[in-house]
Design a protein that fits this description.
This protein has about 180 residues and is an alpha+beta fold. It is built from 5 helices and 5 strands. Strands 2-1-5-3-4 form a 5-stranded mixed β-sheet, with helices on both faces. A hairpin with a 2-residue loop joins strand 3 and strand 4. About 35% of the residues are buried. The model has no long low-confidence stretch (mean pLDDT about 90).
Length: about 180
């Protein structure tokens, strides 16, 4: 019995494509992408910004959290075409040009708020977004747990992350 091989998978999808333009980490970018390309894939594969991690691909774990027009959002649930014209910030935008850590990153370092580090970029972006919002912060254990509820960490047990959020508030003058 003769078997026939399947055709090779093309390098690019046969999906319809569309031009997108957005600002990513302060830089205007334009690309032609599949209408089904996720923002996480756009950031990682089109722009080489691999700090945005992809964990569950269902929006549950929060590893892919980026700032979309200043609000924390899941890049694995957002299509690149949906971000057309938007301002996107990734973890690569947080550290200063001279290498100085953002206060949230510094707090994670000081408080040992990470272990494997896979969830850390999403956690940092979620926390940065909250600190950039006006208004009072709830720095009680319950308030911080609520803030972190959209990000899953399988390594730390969260105690050091909670301490890091409080330390970041001190460093940012928001305590």
């Amino acid at each position: 019995m003769a078997r026939t091989m399947k055709a090779a998978i093309p390098d690019r999808s046969a999906d319809a494509e569309i031009d997108v333009s957005m600002t990513v980490n302060g830089e205007a970018v334009s690309r032609t992408v599949s209408v089904r390309m996720l923002l996480s894939d756009f950031l990682r594969h089109e722009l080489g910004l691999t700090g945005t991690h992809v964990g569950c691909e269902h929006g549950v774990c929060g590893c892919c959290t980026v700032l979309i027009n200043g609000k924390a959002g899941r890049s694995c649930l957002t299509l690149a075409v949906q971000a057309n014209g938007y301002d996107i910030r990734t973890i690569e935008s947080v550290t200063a040009a001279d290498g100085t850590l953002h206060p949230v990153q510094q707090a994670f370092k000081e408080c040992h708020g990470l272990q494997c580090g896979y969830c850390t970029p999403g956690m940092v972006m979620n926390i940065v977004a909250r600190f950039e919002e006006p208004g009072q912060l709830d720095l009680s254990d319950e308030g911080i747990r609520d803030l972190l509820s959209g990000n899953l960490c399988r390594c730390t047990g969260y105690l050091n992350i909670i301490a890091a959020v409080r330390r970041a508030a001190e460093l940012l003058g928001r305590a």
